[in-house]
Design a protein that fits this description.
Number of helices: 12
Keywords: Lyase
CATH topology: TIM Barrel
Strand content: 5-15%
Oligomer: single chain
Protein name: 4-hydroxy-tetrahydrodipicolinate synthase
InterPro entries: Aldolase_TIM (IPR013785), DapA-like (IPR002220)
Strand order of the largest sheet: 1-8-7-6-5-4-3-2
CATH class: Alpha Beta
Low-confidence stretches: none
GO molecular function: 4-hydroxy-tetrahydrodipicolinate synthase activity
Radius of gyration: 18 Å
Distance between the termini: 29 Å
Family: Belongs to the DapA family.
Number of strands: 8
CATH architecture: Alpha-Beta Barrel
Largest sheet: 8 strands, parallel
Helix content: 40-55%
Length: 296
C-alpha cells in the first residue's frame, strides 16, 4: 500500500428522499480522479457512516471498488464499539476488495491504553489488509500515544497514522522514534501544509471533496519544494479549510460540493441541512472562495 498522496474522506451522496445517490457519488469521484487524488476513504465522519445501514455500507464499498477497478485504492473506515464488529468489517472489507483500512479506537467507551492496543492488535491480526490508525483525541477523546505506537510496531500491517492530534510537532516525534516505520498523513485540513513541510507523507482531506484540484496542487508543490507557490494557494484556501474543523463539517463541506457542482447538500437525520444566518455565513465563505479561486 502506498500511503503517499491525497486521500479524500469522501462524502456519501443522498437523494432528497434519503436514498443513496450513486450517480452523483461517482460524478464526484470522477472529478477527483481527474485532479489526481491518490485513493479514497469510505465510511468516515464525512461519509456519515454512523447513519448508514450495514447493507448500505456493503453496497457503497462493493460498488466503489468495482467502479474504480484498481485505479486507486479504496480504504474502508472502521469505527465500532465492539471488537467483534470491527473484526466483521475487517473481514468484509477484504472480501469486498478494499485495499486498506482506517481504524479508530473503540467508540462509545473510553478505553485505556492497554485496551486500545489490544483492540488494534486484534483487528490487525485478523486481516492481511494494511491499516492506518486514526489518531484524533480532539474529536474521539482517545490519544494514541507514541508509546502505544511502539507496541503496535509488531503488527506489520499497521503501516500508517492519520495524524489529527492538532500538534504539528507530533510528526517530528513519530519520525524521531520510528523513522519511516509508520507513514504519516495529516488529518486536519488547516494544518496540512505545515505537516507536509515537516515531513508528512500524505493528506487525508475533507475540502478536497469540493476542491480537489487545489488540494492536489498544494501537495504536489510542497513535495517539489515550491513552498512559495504552495503557500499562495494555501492562504486562499484556509477560510474554506476551516469548514473542516467544525462539528457541522458534513453539512458545510456538502454545501461546498453543491456550489462546485459535484455534490448535493442532502444529509441524513439527525443532521439537517443549513438554514438562516448559519447558512448565509457558510455560503458567503464558499462564494467568496470561488470568486477568488486561483488559476492553477
Amino acid at each position: 500500500m502506498n500511503w503517499k498522496g491525497v486521500f479524500p474522506a469522501i462524502t456519501t451522496k443522498f437523494h432528497s428522499d434519503g436514498s443513496l445517490d450513486m450517480d452523483l457519488f461517482f460524478k464526484n469521484i470522477d472529478f477527483q480522479l481527474e485532479c489526481g487524488v491518490h485513493g479514497f476513504i469510505l465510511g468516515g465522519t464525512l461519509g456519515e457512516s454512523s447513519v448508514l445501514s450495514q447493507e448500505e455500507k456493503i453496497t457503497l464499498t462493493r460498488e466503489t471498488v468495482n467502479y474504480l477497478d484498481g485505479k486507486v485504492p479504496v480504504i474502508l473506515n472502521i469505527a465500532e464499539g465492539a471488537t467483534k464488529d470491527a473484526l466483521f468489517w475487517a473481514a468484509k472489507a477484504e472480501e469486498l476488495g478494499a485495499e486498506g483500512l482506517m481504524l479508530l479506537p473503540p467508540m462509545r467507551y473510553a478505553a485505556d491504553a492497554r485496551e486500545v492496543v489490544t483492540y488494534f492488535k486484534a483487528v490487525a491480526n485478523s486481516t492481511k489488509l494494511p491499516i492506518m490508525i486514526y489518531n484524533n483525541p480532539t474529536d474521539y477523546k482517545t490519544l494514541v500515544t507514541i508509546d502505544m505506537f511502539a507496541e503496535l510496531v509488531e503488527c506489520e500491517n499497521i503501516e500508517s497514522v492519520k495524524e489529527s492530534t492538532r500538534d504539528i510537532s507530533n510528526v517530528t516525534r513519530m519520525r524521531n522514534r520510528f523513522g519511516d516505520r509508520f507513514k504519516i498523513l495529516c488529518g486536519v485540513d488547516t494544518l496540512a501544509m505545515e505537516e507536509l513541510v515537516m515531513g508528512a507523507d500524505g493528506w487525508v482531506a475533507g475540502l478536497v471533496c469540493a476542491f480537489p484540484k487545489e488540494t492536489v496542487a498544494i501537495f504536489n508543490l510542497v513535495n517539489e519544494g515550491k513552498y512559495d507557490e504552495a503557500r499562495e494557494i494555501y492562504r486562499w484556501f484556509i477560510p474554506l479549510l476551516e469548514l473542516d474543523i467544525h462539528p457541522k463539517l458534513v453539512q458545510y463541506i456538502k454545501l461546498a460540493e453543491q456550489h462546485c457542482g459535484i455534490g448535493s447538500e442532502y444529509v441524513r437525520a439527525p443532521r439537517l441541512t443549513l438554514i438562516g444566518e448559519e447558512r448565509e455565513r457558510v455560503e458567503k465563505i464558499i462564494t467568496e472562495g470561488l470568486a477568488k479561486r486561483p488559476k492553477l
